């Protein structure tokens, strides 16, 4: 296979490992693109039952130039809004009424498999992290992590989504 041809055996795990290595290298995050040439920022949905926290995160994201496409106070509404807005990245609370973040993530990923979900939790429980990983969540972060960690995670998750989309397009054209 020529070197410039995409590897057809490339997986989500390969991409995550690649991005992890990139993060550790200190090299800048590559900028991708959406279908629309002018859309060069991540489209993010914020999900949390705490209105104050959700509003604070939304305001911070907007200040950072992120396109906040939706908000939801619980899992069922998150699933519905993800289907309507097709976010690149979802920032979602773990513990919410009606449906927890892990179940909501599973349902979102069932219909929007390239969407990257970052679970935010006040709990650093290893079993919750394992359940999130099994559900296909991109990352599990503690809510009090530094904003720089959250911002970098959002950028890497968005870059992964763009990579998955580009690989999918290349495979479809082959």
What does this structure look like?
The chain is α/β, with parallel strands linked by helices. It has a single domain (41-169), classed as Response regulator (Rossmann fold). Helix content is 49%, strand content 15%. It has helices at residues 12-25, 51-63, 75-85, 101-111, 126-134, 147-173; strands at 43-47, 67-72, 89-93, 116-121, 139-142. The chain has a 5-stranded parallel sheet, sandwiched between helices. Helix 5 (126-134) links the parallel strand 4 (116-121) and strand 5 (139-142). Helix 1 (12-25) packs across helix 6 and helix 3 (75-85) runs parallel beside helix 4. The longest helix has 27 residues, at 147-173. It is globular, with a radius of gyration of 16 Å.
> What's the tally of helices?
6
Fraction in beta strands = 5-15%
Low-confidence stretches: 1-12, 14-38
Question: What is the 3D shape?
Answer: globular
Q: Give the termini distance in whole angstroms.
A: 13 Å
Largest sheet: 5 strands, parallel
For the secondary structure, the number of strands is: 5
Radius of gyration: 16 Å
Q: According to CATH, what is the topology?
A: Rossmann fold
Strand order of the largest sheet: 2-1-3-4-5
How many domains make up the coordinates? 1
The CATH superfamily turns out to be Response regulator
Helix content: 40-55%
- What integer is the average pLDDT? 79
Named CATH architecture: 3-Layer(aba) Sandwich
Indicate the CATH class: Alpha Beta
**How are helices and strands ordered from N to C?**
HEHEHEHEHEH
Specify the structural class.
Answer: alpha/beta
């Amino acid at each position: 296979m020529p070197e410039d041809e995409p590897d057809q055996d490339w997986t989500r795990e390969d991409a995550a490992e690649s991005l992890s290595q990139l993060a550790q290298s200190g090299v800048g995050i590559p900028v991708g693109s959406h279908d629309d040439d002018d859309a060069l920022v991540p489209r993010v949905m914020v999900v949390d039952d705490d209105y104050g926290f959700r509003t604070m995160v939304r305001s911070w994201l907007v200040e950072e130039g992120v396109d906040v496409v939706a908000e939801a106070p619980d899992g069922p509404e998150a699933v519905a809004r993800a289907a309507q807005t097709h976010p690149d990245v979802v920032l979602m609370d773990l513990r919410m009424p009606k449906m927890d973040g892990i179940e909501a993530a599973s349902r979102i990923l069932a219909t929007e498999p390239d969407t990257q979900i970052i679970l935010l939790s006040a709990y650093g429980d290893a079993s919750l992290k394992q359940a999130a990983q099994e559900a296909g969540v991109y990352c599990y972060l503690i809510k009090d992590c530094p904003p720089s960690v959250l911002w970098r995670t959002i950028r890497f998750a968005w870059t992964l989504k763009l990579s998955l989309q580009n690989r999918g397009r290349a495979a479809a054209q082959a």
